[in-house]
Design a protein that fits this description.
By secondary structure, the chain is of the alpha+beta class. It has 9 helices and 26 strands. The chain has 3 domains: 73 residues, no CATH class; 234 residues, Immunoglobulin-like (Sandwich), CATH 2.60.40.1610; 166 residues, Sandwich (Jelly Rolls).
Amino acid sequence: MALNRRGAFKLATTLALLSSKPTAAGTGQGAGTRAAVDTQAGALEFELGMPTARTVDSLYQALDHQSAVMSYLWAIPIVGMESARQMLVDNAGARSGDFVRVSGYRDVSAMLGSNVTTPYVFAFFDLSRQPLVLHYPPGATAGSLIDWWDRPLCDVGITGPDAGRGAVFVLLGPGQQAPGELPAGAQLLRSRTFKVLLFCRGLDADLAQVETVFSALRVHPPGQQPAAASTRLLRFKPEGELTSMAHPQGLAYWQRLANALRGEPVEDRDRFFAALLAPLGIKFDRPFAPDARQQAVLEKAAIVGEATAKAIAFRKRIPGMRYRPDTHWEYLIAPGFDNAQDVPGGTLFEERTAFFYEVTGTSAAVLTRTPGVGAAYLAAYYDAKAAPFDGARSYRLRVPADVPARLFWSATLYDTQTRGLVQNAQQIVDRSSRQDLAKNADGSVDIVLGPTPAPGLEKNWIPTTPGHSWYVYFRLFGPLAAYFDRSWVLPDIQAL
């Protein structure tokens, strides 16, 4: 009923706005009783004030298209989470409770917005049958436990409440009660969804030490001893095509959404979208089986939805996105973004669309305002003339000396179409202060971004591919005060 009322309201609004200048249909009955109006939905015809059968079909078609496009944007966070799960299933054979180490160019190329500077571990947990106990080991790691709408439950590692000393978490799904006996010092985490994702990165430069820490992860049902848990640490398959974490296109997007929603509760904030999706063949509690008309609507809406997401992400109209007025660098995450995605007075709709179209997974640490803690991200999508970065041209990024990062900094390139790592034969996608880079006399570093290296700067080169546009993230791990007060300047990327 809610959808029908909305459709009636939209129809009434259209008539109120447009009926002041009707075009007579030429029947002799007068413009007030039979008229045709040209609109974005086509020519709307009325007889005695009532829409004709053809007009009704046209309006419902337009309404379903509009509903599907808005639902596409609304679903971007949860489709991204389900895509992360599918990546782990397809590439590593992972099940609920398995941990998957992701590192190196090939593995990370399947991810959204990630970098090869640090190795990752992912896992998904299905709480639909029972709560789970997670033993998170001590060590130099940082990450987050997040629900299926990409809302953090708790940071883990050095940015978490344990500050890298290790912790025990009891994960509870919607409506679940805490077990009678809890492990000593365990923290209860209540998820609003039955599926939860863990992602964390190893920050130790010694990869052997990172492997040791990750191997100590354990998950088990309440009442079982950690030593008895049959926890697996998996890797991606070494050969064959890898499934990407990117949002799928066309009808596959909606299939992925239906998979993500199945078995999850309908939250109050999502009831309106549940009503919009029902006439399109997508329901929280039923298999995805759209008819031919619904499929056609969904396929077209996916094209418009993805294009709109690109516009929102790469040409943001969100206030306050520019890091400094004298350069084109932007914050990746909108200032004032709340990981809950809801604030008094509304939902951060475009803010979350932009963020989660580019990346999957967030944490409290990426919203840090404490110098020396967490990570900060700046992004550049266009050159100084507002043109897309061209993989056939060469550019220079001059990184000043004394970057305000307590740990290290890195610059990573991403393909505009995939939002994954740029693909090149050299398998080089980033440069960082952890590497032996050539420096200028003043301590600055020139990073060359282009199809060929500049003489003498081969160690500073990130190869690009003609025919592909790209964008760049500049990461500061442990950002310091000069970043937060914006007294530090990162110059624009210049064409050579």
